[in-house]
Specification:
alpha/beta
Length: about 260
Amino acid sequence: MPDAPNSGTVATDIKDGIGSISFYHPKKNSLSKPLLQSLSSAIRKLGADAGARVVVLRSEGDGIFCAGASFSDLSLLKQPGEAKAFFVEVAEAILAMKGCPKPIIARVQGKAVGGGVGLVAACDYALALNSAAVRLSELELGIGPFVVGPVIERKIGRAAFAAMGLDTGWREAAWARQQGLYVDIFASVTELDTAVTALAAKLANGSVAAMTQLKSILWEGTENWDQLLATRAEISGRLLLSDFATKAIAAAGVKRSRR
């Protein structure tokens, strides 16, 4: 499903009961508003398709898994309503993953930042390369990890989330596995893909009714997230327009483009 030029793409496929979602953005697989919208749509589509019994989420390339929100998009937001609307799209992607009745496996081949960590946490099972470090950089940018916070805290606990949120430095993949963000980490892409394929095939041959019930139980206690994430999106949108955030995001965008 193509998006507007330079906003990224999202592709879906179903084979042998395994639904695949692959996203790509030329700027380190960052999350533009159109990409987020396409991602939410793809998740809901596979969730409703009886041909997909399990979903695998991946990004393209052998570099970073996801650099988080697109700084190009963020720098263009000037009004409170449109700033909130961007973060609502982040929330919608998380809610789509939460509401998907099929288990979602994350294949994490590289580093994840901000919203990328949120996507991994919103999956039901994440496998990664041992080089797939994680980072929450939002506080450094003056906006805070508010929208992705609930899903990350749900996965790794409040103490680990607080550590990531306050100390915006990188955390190694081994740390992420220890906290429960990753179930396992691997030394090579071949090993990672073998593990992802094996688990996906196993689940695709399982009981749909049982997996749907398990997914529902795993997400118990999140029934108020529509309202919670909307509130968090408003907070992030308001902070995004501050002088601190405007300058920090502009500077960070320059750094990202040079890497």
